[in-house]
Amino acid sequence: MILTDLDEHDILKGLRTLLAQKGIAGPAEIAERIVQTDAANPGQGAAMVARAWTDPPYRALMLADGTKAAEAMGIPMRGLPPLGVLENQPGLHHLVVCTLCSCYPRAVLGYPPFWYKSAAYRAKAVRSPRALLREFGTELAAEVAIRVVDSTADYRWMVLPQRPAGTEGWDAARLAAIVREGDMIGVTIPSA
Amino acid sequence: MTRPALLPAGTRVRVRLDWPETRGPCHIRTPYYLRGQEGVVERPLGRFRNPEQLAFARPAEELALYHVRFDLRRIWPEADADLLVELFETWLEAA
Q1: Nearest C-alpha of chain A: how many angstroms from B86?
Q2: Which residues of A touch B46 (CB under 8 A)?
Q3: Where are the domains of chain B?
C-alpha cells in the first residue's frame, strides 16, 4: 500500500477510527479541539499583553507561568504545550523563530502568519536577525541587544513587548487594539 | 531511582558534536547549527518525554529540558545577537 495513492478522506477516516479505538481521542474531543484551534487569534495574546501592561500582578504571573496567565484570560490550554513569555526590555529585544519546523504559540496567537514557516524567515532569524527586523520595518537602536528564541522542543514562546510611549492612561481594551501578532513574535514593536 | 540534580543557571555546557542523522532514521530537536557549540544554562524548563523516542512510538523516558543561551556571533559573525534555545539533557556535556 502506498499512502499517497489513497484518497485523503479515507486516510482521515482511518486515522479518526484508530484514535477512537485506541482511546486517544474521540469524535467529540476532536470536534472541540478544532473549534478551539480555529477560534484562537492574535487578539487573545494582545489581551494578555494589554493586561500585563496595566496589572502588575498579572504581568508577574505571565512571566512566571504563561499557561496559567492564558487560562486566567479564559484561553483553553489543557493538553497543550506550556507557554513561556519573554519580556522585551529597554536594552533587550526578543525574536521568536522555529528553525526546525513551525512551533508557534497557537493557543494564544492562532495560526502562524504564512512567512513564519518559510525557510527564508527561519534562516535569517538566527543568521542576521537585525537585518531581518529591518525587512519588517523594525529599526532597533544599535545599543538594543537582540535575543533570538529558537523554539525547538516542548515549550511555545511569545514576546511581551514594551508598552509604547504615548499610551499613558489608556485602558486595557484600547491598549490591546495596538498589539499585533508580529509584536508578540518580535518582528515588530507596537506604537501608539 | 534518583534523578540527577538539574544543572543550575549559569552552568557552562557544550552541545554534543553528534550526527545521529548519519546513522539512520531519527527525530532530533537539536538544530544542526548548535552541534559542538558552547553555551550557558539560562534555566531548567522541566522534564518532558524524549521526543526522539516519542516520534517512533517507542517507550520514552522523561528528560530534563533546559533553556540554553548561546552567542550567535561565534557561529555567524554577522549575527549580532544571542540565542535562547530548548535543549534536552542528553545533548549537553560539561564545557
Answers
A1: 6
A2: 82, 154
A3: 7-63
Q: How far is B1 from chain A (nearest CA, A)?
A: 24
Contact: B29, A100; criterion CB under 8 Å: yes
Classified by CATH at the fold level, domain B7-63 comes out as: SH3 type barrels. (2.30.30)
ipTM: 0.95
Residue B1 has pLDDT above 60, yes or no: no
**For a pLDDT cut of 70, what percent of chain A falls above it?**
100
Residues A165, A96 share a domain: yes
The CA distance from A99 to A121, in Å, is 9
Residue of A nearest to B82 (CA): A147
d(CA B92, CA B85): 12
**What is the spatial distance between Cα A149 and Cα B65, in angstroms, rounded to a whole number?**
15
Contacts of B87 in chain A (CB under 8 A): 152-153
Residue of chain B with shortest Cα separation from A97: B85
Look up the domain containing A172 and give its range: 41-185
Distance between CA atoms of residues B85 and B80, nearest Å:
16
Does residue A191 form part of some domain?
A: no
The confidence score (pLDDT) of residue B2 equals 62
Do A56 and A32 have their domain in common? no
> Is there a domain that residue A179 lies in?
yes
* B48 → closest Cβ in A99, A150, A154: A154
Residue at A51: amino acid letter: R
